[in-house]
Amino acid sequence: MNQQIWTRYKLEDNQLHKWQLGDIQLQVSKVGKTITILKERVDEESPEYLYTTEDTEIDLEGGTKFITDRSQLYMMPAMPVYPIVFKPQDELKIAPGIQSTIYFQVPVYIQFYLGTVKEENRLIEFPSVEMSQTWFGEPDNGELALSGDRSILFTYRPEELKTNHVICPVKLFNDSKEILDFQRFLLRVEHLTLYAEKSYLCSNETRITFRGPDVASDVQPIKSKPTFSQHFKMLANPRSSDNRNLLKRSFHFLKSFTQ
Fold first, then answer.
1. Rounded to whole angstroms, how far apart are CA atoms 197 and 31?
2. Residue numbers of the domain that contains 199
């Protein structure tokens, strides 16, 4: 997977562009000043990224149409719009005084931009994987979130990553005097930056110091690219940069960390 996915594409008249990431197929055509973008699910999932072009005079049916005189199209990844709840498939406990880095896999959103990658030039965005909604927290004091993958990694293995997923490293330190029973974890992905190495995606690291279920813990998104590779390049800024809101809401979550 050495080919860059998230980049600029030149749209020619009467030419069809096709991408497949996982079980999602994207098609884009340009006829005159009309650009059509069509997203479909396919039965056979591709383990690798596929991209082809073909000449055609037939306009796509069933897609979203845009009238424009521009022909430069960018396909870019983005983090989901809601935080992600992870409930590990296997029971996980972290002993007092122990620090561990865990890698979570998050399906990205796909965005299309015309001309340049600016908010005002964004045509459309959609999730690459349909995730179910869930509620995190107490019934009267919680928030809407998405259910994440139940499998987690303890080493960075990009070769196991799907092309429409991003690896999110989280460094956990149990600074309490009790075992941290890792049952449900909320990762606020909307505050994370996206980086790319070839076709692999990774976010910046989140560091969490746990001091007990009834004590506020430290949450710190590290504002630098991942250190386990020298070839990461930044692709997308966080959806939200309001760190004050992040800390305030995360403290409530971390007080209920083992519930």
1. 34
2. 80-107+129-255
Backbone angles phi, psi at 154, to 5 degrees: -110, 0
pLDDT, tens digit (0-9, with 9 covering 90-100), for 179-238: 887 777 889 899 899 999 877 899 999 998 888 777 766 778 888 888 877 788 999 999
Which 8-state DSSP code applies to residue 205?
P
Helix (H) or strand (E) holding 105: strand 99-107
234: in domain? yes
Residues written for the chain? 259
What is the identity of the amino acid at 64? T
User: How far is the CA of 247 from the CAs of 80, 90, 168, 235, 241, in angstroms?
Assistant: 19, 28, 18, 25, 12
188 Ramachandran zone, left/alpha/beta (phi>0; psi -120 to 50): beta
Q: Is residue 244 part of a domain?
A: yes
Evaluate whether residue 237 is within a structural domain: yes
Task: Say how far residue 9 (Cα) sits from the centre of its chain.
Answer: 22
For the chain, the maximum distance between any two Cα atoms, rounded to a whole number of angstroms, is: 68
Extended strands (E) in 128-164 = 133-138, 141-147
Q: pLDDT tens digit string along 142-185? A: 789 999 888 888 888 877 778 889 999 999 898 989 888 777 78
Q: Look at residue 101 and tell me if it is in a domain.
A: yes
